[in-house]
Design brief:
It is a single chain. With 384 residues, the protein is α/β, with parallel strands linked by helices. The chain has twelve helices and 14 strands. The strands form two sheets. An eight-stranded parallel barrel has the order 4-5-6-7-8-9-10-11. The longest helix has 22 residues.
Length: 384
């Protein structure tokens, strides 16, 4: 298998100003960064670099210094059948480089599936579906939580596995990166009331989740709030505190924490493996390379819930991973209604009774379509 060229594609949404009543995520303005690999036979494989990590200068350096040489030497079938580190692209221990490697893993797996004319996940598993939960629940602090009720009801009506929401966001900290640095305080009294109301509306047979975005301080009030969520039988509580391992040791009665969306290497998960408070790991395959994550999932004692925010290429990679790994029983899908013309991919999945199935019969299921709402920039590199 010979790769003829590598393309770095930047899909930039033509941002009109206010998208809708909910705060748009960071990537809407920054755009999507895609690795496209093309074989001599014209087969195209796609993978996505994390928008949160992307840096143009460093990415171009990585492609020219490491990736082209790696692509020249790779034996595609051996790459995914062997889980040693022989093929690791770069000695650089950097999250951006690992995200590029993750994108390359996606693109190679996409090509392999297309070459064999099967879904990529079928190289690893015969699973037909995986549970999927609806992820939304974003408002500004000057809005009322009650406007989220329709999302909850719709998620239940459509029979998702569950629904996840978030504390209201200060307008001046609408950027996720800003919030991680500043950790703006949450009005727990207001949030607690909505959590209670949500459980009443959802009933006992529908799962609720909450993403606290590392915004709680480790004090008695916060711990009481987490215990309250347990009383309401929240399925999981995502990242309540700053990413400090010592904080979890102080939680005695909480055993349904989910962490790991920012992890890109096995060692990060291993540090948390012994914490009983942490029930779920939530990796993302545009940060943690598919092959490396699949290897780790075979030895991990924790359950996996695939993290995802966009409905872009990375979602298809996460879906394929969810179908590939026995440890993964649930994945996240963004159900916020950003503009209907926001998507530049054909929808190649369907959801039925809380489970998600992939439709496309080869590769990852990625199929680009023309969309005038996006400007596309492309940088080309010849391999041969």
């Amino acid at each position: 298998m010979n790769i003829y060229s590598i393309n770095l594609i930047h899909k930039i949404y033509k941002y009109p100003g206010k998208i809708n009543e909910f705060p748009p995520p960071f990537f809407v303005k920054k755009g999507f960064f895609i690795i496209e690999l093309i074989t001599k036979d014209g087969i195209k494989g796609y993978g996505e670099i994390s928008s949160y990590l992307f840096d143009k200068k460093k990415t171009l350096f990585f492609i020219e210094k490491y990736l082209i040489n790696f692509i020249k030497k790779i034996d595609l079938e051996k790459y995914f059948s062997s889980f040693n580190n022989k093929y690791f692209i770069s000695p650089l221990n950097d999250n951006l480089y690992l995200s590029i490697k993750a994108a390359v893993d996606q693109a190679l797996l996409d090509i392999l599936g297309k070459m064999k004319k099967i879904n990529s996940y079928k190289f690893f598993s015969n699973k037909k579906n995986v549970n999927v939960y609806s992820s939304g629940g974003v408002i500004f602090e000057n809005q009322e939580y009650d406007i989220l009720t329709d999302q909850l009801l719709k998620s239940k009506e459509l029979k998702y596995f569950g629904w996840k929401f978030r504390p209201s966001i200060p307008i001046k900290y609408s950027n996720h990166i800003q919030r991680l640095k500043k950790n703006p305080e949450i009005d727990l009294n207001k949030l607690e009331k909505f959590c209670y109301k949500s459980r009443k509306i959802a009933g006992c047979d529908f799962n609720l989740m909450i993403d606290l975005g590392c915004r709680l301080k480790l004090n008695r009030k916060s711990i009481r709030f987490l215990e309250f969520l347990n009383e309401l039988k929240f399925y999981f509580i995502e990242e309540p505190f700053k990413r400090n391992l010592n904080d979890y040791e102080k939680l005695k009665n909480i055993k349904n924490i989910a962490v790991g969306e920012n992890f890109s290497q096995e060692k990060s998960f291993k540090k948390l493996s012994h914490f009983k408070q942490i029930k779920y790991f939530q990796p993302d395959t545009n940060i943690f390379p598919f092959k490396d994550l699949l290897k780790y999932s075979k030895i991990s004692k924790k359950k996996f819930i695939l993290h995802n925010w966009t409905n872009s290429m990375n979602f298809y990679s996460n879906l394929n991973f969810g179908l590939s790994s026995k440890k993964c029983h649930l994945i996240e899908i963004n159900t916020l209604n950003f503009p209907k013309n926001f998507i530049f991919l054909k929808k190649n999945y369907y959801i039925k009774a809380g489970k998600i199935y992939i439709k496309k019969k080869n590769g990852l299921g990625i199929e680009m379509i023309k969309n005038n709402s996006f400007k596309t920039n492309k940088i080309k590199f010849k391999v041969i």
